[in-house]
């Protein structure tokens, strides 16, 4: 499959996708995202790497990101690898955990959240 992926651009698509995001992997990364929200809106996408629905929503959202001219900072959280950070987000911002989930931070506070098919960049 690797050869077919390379022939049809799958690897390049994955590289482009990864470059769109700042990853949240530690509490310090989360703190940095919150701090960043005082300069511009921060979007945190919480993704379950084992969930087909989450993967589908992520791909759709990334297409919207690539075509958007909105001044936003995009952060990505792998829920399976960093569930402790997801729990911190829930505690800190009072947003019940879901997956996939998009949380918008502004001035250090969660001002919007959506999950599943409700995740839409045009709503922000």
Q: What count of structural domains?
A: 1
Helix content: 40-55%
Query: Hey, roughly how much beta strand do the residues contain?
Result: 15-25%
| Structural class assignment | alpha/beta
Report Rg.
15 Å
Poorly predicted tracts of residues: 10-16
What is the strand arrangement across the widest sheet?
Answer: 1-3-2-4-5
What does this entry look like structurally?
This protein has one domain (27-123): Glutaredoxin. Helices cover 42% and strands 23% of the residues. The protein contains five helices and five strands. Strands 1-3-2-4-5 form a five-stranded mixed sheet, with helices on both faces. Strand 4 and strand 5 (109-115) form a beta hairpin. The protein is globular, with a radius of gyration of 15 Å. Residues 10-16 have low confidence and may be disordered.
Features:
alpha/beta, five-stranded mixed sheet, 5 helices, 23% strand
Could you give a short description of this structure?
The protein is α/β, with parallel strands linked by helices.
Summarize the SSE layout with pairings.
Elements: H1 2-7, H2 10-19, E1 22-23, H3 27-36, E2 41-47, H4 52-66, E3 72-78, H5 83-93, E4 101-106, E5 109-115
Parallel strand pairs: 1-3, 2-3
Antiparallel strand pairs: 2-4, 4-5
């Amino acid at each position: 499959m690797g050869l077919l992926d390379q022939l049809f651009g799958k690897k390049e698509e994955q590289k482009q996708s990864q470059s769109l995001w700042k990853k949240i992997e530690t509490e310090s990364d989360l703190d940095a995202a919150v701090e960043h929200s005082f300069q511009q809106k921060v979007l945190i996408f919480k993704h379950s790497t084992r969930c087909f629905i989450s993967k589908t929503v992520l791909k759709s959202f990334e297409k919207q990101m690539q075509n958007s001219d909105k001044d936003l900072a995009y952060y990505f959280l792998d829920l399976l690898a960093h569930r402790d950070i997801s729990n911190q987000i829930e505690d800190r911002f009072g947003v019940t955990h879901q997956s996939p989930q998009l949380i918008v931070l502004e001035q250090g506070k969660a001002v919007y959240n959506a999950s599943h098919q409700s995740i839409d960049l045009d709503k922000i």
